[in-house]
Amino acid sequence: MENTENKGKEREELFSRAVRAGKRTYFFDVKATADGEAYLTITESKRKFDEEGKFFYEKHKIFLYREDFEKFLGGLNDTLEFIKTGKEPEIPITFEDLSA
Length: 100
Prior knowledge:
The chain is of the alpha+beta class. The protein has helices spanning 69-85, 95-99; strands at residues 13-21, 24-32, 38-49, 55-65. The model is unreliable at 1-6 (pLDDT under 50).
């Protein structure tokens, strides 16, 4: 039986952090699925102006679920390391990689 009580409603926000960086603001929000599993949304918000000079916010959002945290963080760390050093990080081959 489908629960229609929460249909169309935002998920409960468990934690939120805003990071202002120049013309952009990044929002890191932890929410819970209907089953109570925590997930992360990362939103980039940038203030822009239309032709009439009125401002609006352009937003881009990604959803990151618990089962993907480790791989996402690994990819982000590798990317940041490359930016810092200019060298590709060594990526160890695991049994999991070979069986995929």
